[in-house]
User: Fold these one by one.
Assistant:
Number 1:
Amino acid sequence: MAAFDLTQSGGIAHLQFCQPKTSNAMGIDFWADFLPAITALNEKGSTRVLVISAQGKNFCSGMDLAAFAGGIPETKTPLQREAFPFLVGDLQKVLSALETARFPVIAAIQGACIGGGLDLVSACDLRFASENAYFRIEETNIGMMADLGSLQRLPKLMPEGLVRELAYLGNTLSAERAYAAGFVNVVETDFDATLSAAMQAAERIAGQAPMAITGSKSAITYARDHSIEDSLRWASTMQAMIWNPDDIGKAVMARVKKETAEFEDLKPIPQLKP
């Protein structure tokens, strides 16, 4: 059974988890299909923004341990320990694809967003939540360290002390507190309002010049992990690459005339042919 449905209308792609009976746990279908789906969107160039939502009362209950066909991996021997990091690395790459995509990603979250679900939304650009949404580093409560991105990305998105609280105590973070901490951008009354707000934001993004958006995303992500001096130098080089007087002229003229500008999509990523 598919873990999600993926549709596209204009420049807006919508990926919706569709296994509400399991609270959209990340099973084998998710881990097999998610990275190829995001990669395909990234390669074709026509996607200007991606919205991720979920059916049912919960956004995502995290990793489904049944995804490990051979049972929970062991690290009892040197040979097992040598292989284990490659498994974790492959899982990390699946979620990191959201962060490295050329387009922004908006998560529309309701109910539980815990464990792997929190890892996933941490890699998104914007997070919109319903009032009943809550977040938890669930791995602590089942005797393990989170290893798919929450501990690495959350300290860049909220106060470090709060991240340590979540990681050490296994506490639940409410949507209200997540908003106050700056992790969540918008809080709405319910799922419908949350998804509607996410789609409205997506429409605004899709109407902007794609080169300006992809450049901005790249610059912000680069600056997060580098010094201001290095980031300014990188930005000047990036601006030289993407500077487009045609887009600027269209945007300015559209503003003057109070019209909607039409911008060219990003080009598909060139592929090697066999």
Note: The two ends are 32 Å apart (CA to CA).
Number 2:
Amino acid sequence: MVDEKVYWMGWQYLLPGSARRIWNLVERFGSPRAAWMASGEDLVARGGFEPRAAAYLVRCRSELDLQAEVARLQELNITYITSDEKGYPHLLRVIFDPPPGLFIRGSLPPAGEQAVAVVGSRRPTPYGVTVAEKLAGELARAGVTVVSGMARGIDSAAHRGALEAGGRTVAVLGCGVDVVYPRENRRLMEDIIEAGAVISEFPPGSPPEAWHFPVRNRIISGLCRATVVVEAAERSGALITADLALEQGRDVMAVPGPVTSPQSRGPNQLIKQGARLVESVEDILEELGITRLFPAKHLQAPVMPGLTADEEAVYRVLSGDPVAVDIIIENTGLATQQVLSALMFLEVKGLARQFPGRLYARREKPTRF
């Protein structure tokens, strides 16, 4: 790793999530190396730090072995790229306070590939999950990279939708890229790394502290031409991402929802304020001037697994909107045990998904068959 690059990385270890402070520091000293070598007195006089903060930085700096950290990154199969390197995303580079460098597991999209953020509530309704998965899947099949934050709820649904369509997705974390958060997303994280990338400006080992997430949201929006909010309460972090997207000069779109649902207040308000209303993926593609990037023959064709008579009857009753088991039983005329068995196998075959309250919805595309 080139010397200057090591010092950029070092400052991200010392001042995690403080991109603007790092940029100002390097500007004042002329280079990250010069800033790194500065004495405590210089950090006060030229760097603008309080004496106690400068002393703390000097102590932490003396305890940090940069070459050992470089070796650790290699052991963990983590790539580090700085903002002046070729692989650094151009759209992110031009925001007000881009990360000096990114820690990456996996592979970022090639230059010029379109990206759209799909974000929303950590406590979504079944409607929100269904819509997020559907939009993300259709964006992926149109050749668009889906970006989100790998949080519970809408974020996870967006990543899954893109993956199930055989597309590319990028997760921006509010912790180190070697930290799985939330824990139940371990398999999802592995799949994202295989099909795209997991990235962060926070160094490896960084815990998912609350203040990290508003900071990382500017990266989610900064990577993308547009941000789509699916569901969000009035004070949701997804609305922070939307605000940041507007500040960065990017498009903001929103999926409308029932006026009786608290999770619809955020996107409905955005639409009132002028955000593009999204009813289908075509609304997103049209707004961005994106045509289908690949002809249909290049898209991943779903393989429909074989169904028994009971499974076929239950599958015909299901739709994208969650429905209760009792209604499925009534509409199929099958016995309760037959319906429950068929639903279980439809889930296994990737054709149905279960929501809390014994609600089931159809997956239009098999997930992994």
Note: The domain at 115-298 is CATH 3.40.50.450 (Rossmann fold).
